[in-house]
């Protein structure tokens, strides 16, 4: 097995965000943007140094930029599929202004601040064709939690290949308070942020989850 260098991977993820234009999207300089992420290196090295290397559908950690720094309307179009150029899109069935009213579940106790780290991320394709509510229960039984919108965007920003045909995923860590569950899937050769009903299974839609978070 190839050794995993958490420090090198941290630097790669920071550079990827810079290359995707995140400083401009945040309205700050590249130097200031790097300063926001710099404190996250320590928890990454402390927790991810002994991790297995990234594999299909599972990665040791992700740097998550929250909507407090970069709005979802800006971060989604910065994503692409592996080997493609078409920018990510937001499902038109989100009503104007509604997207910001989808918020992270309180029980996730997300780290404060404009950026944080999420660890041990899985896209959860084993939950394809499973009712989302049942998938959530299975995730909780394993001591894991569902990914949020921002975490899902971070996943496909850093690992575009994670979003693949028949291996798309729900982001049930962000909800509106109704039966809708946000999800990322593929549409017309690009990532799409949409939603599905919590009681409806889809053969191509799993449940992404994480092992922990830190700031």
Taking pLDDT < 50 over at least 5 consecutive residues as the criterion, the unreliable ranges are none
Give the oligomeric state. single chain
- How are the strands of the biggest sheet laid out side by side? 2-9-8-6-10
N-to-C terminal Cα separation, in Å? 29 Å
SSE sequence, one letter per element? HHHHEHEEEHEHEEEEEEE
Radius of gyration: 16 Å
Largest sheet: 5 strands, mixed
- The portion of residues assigned to helices is 25-40%
Strand content range? 15-25%
| Secondary-structure content class | alpha+beta
Dominant shape:
globular
Averaged pLDDT: 96
Folded structure, characterized:
With 215 residues, the chain is of the alpha+beta class. It has a five-stranded mixed beta sheet. The protein is built from seven helices and twelve strands. Helix content is 27%, strand content 24%. The mean pLDDT is 96. The chain is globular and about 45 Å long. The protein has one domain (6-214). It has helices at residues 6-19, 22-26, 30-37, 41-48, 72-75, 132-141, 149-158; strands spanning 58-65, 89-90, 103-104, 115-122, 145-146, 168-170, 174-175, 180-187, 190-197, 205-207, 209-210, 212-214.
